[in-house]
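We modelled the chain as a single entity of 248 amino acids. Its sequence is:
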Amino acid sequence: MSFDSSTAPQGSDVWFVTTHWSVVLSAQDPHSSRSRDALEALCRTYWYPLYSYARRGGHSPPDAEDLTQGFFARLLEKDYLKAAARDKGRFRTFLLVALKRYLANEWDRQHAQKRGGFAPVVPIDQDLAESRFASESAHNLPADLLFDRQWAMTLLDRTMTQLQQEYVASGRAQLFDYLRNCLTKDESALPYSEIAGRLKLTESAVKMAVHRVRARYREILQHEIAQTVSAPEEIEEEIRHLFSVFGS
């Protein structure tokens, strides 16, 4: 879908008072409870791109799950965060660099000592992960690029889920079912006139509803991205990058 990053809300700087990655970076003690909780929340959200990266590196599903859990345990317990200075920017970039370091320096030794015994740090649904991985396995692209694609897909899925929950909670579930395909250039999207007829609305009312759902989608997406960057001015650049990976 197209995205106009110039529509960021005027108050977007306010997001950085409590955003997850800024909390991690700003905490004087990286292992304070507040910083750890913020980091755990990010890990729970973004485990799949790491799991998939491990699978593409030739690891079996059980080993990829062990690797992901072991990496997050190491991330939370050790001093990896010392490398996460503010000028390092995005959580996405930090996480992939830290994973590569873990693979090179720690994984073989730890896994030999503790095969299959890594305590879960994040909930991993291996069946779901493998189903998703199988659907992506035809892509013959560099692992780093696929990591960014999967990161972007996680963001978009979270954004769409939150948007749907808002419409359901406000009693507009049926409206959302018709509008969601209008968010993208989906060929299955119905013409506005047909949506209007089915919902007993005017066509102009449907156009306004589409405008509103797109605006709210952009706002949620910006907020999700704000959780993973260290400064407000990085939001637009991160949006441009993440959408660009789908054209690669």
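As a brief sanity check on the tokenised model: The radius of gyration is 20 Å. Residues 31 and 39 are 10 Å apart (CA to CA).
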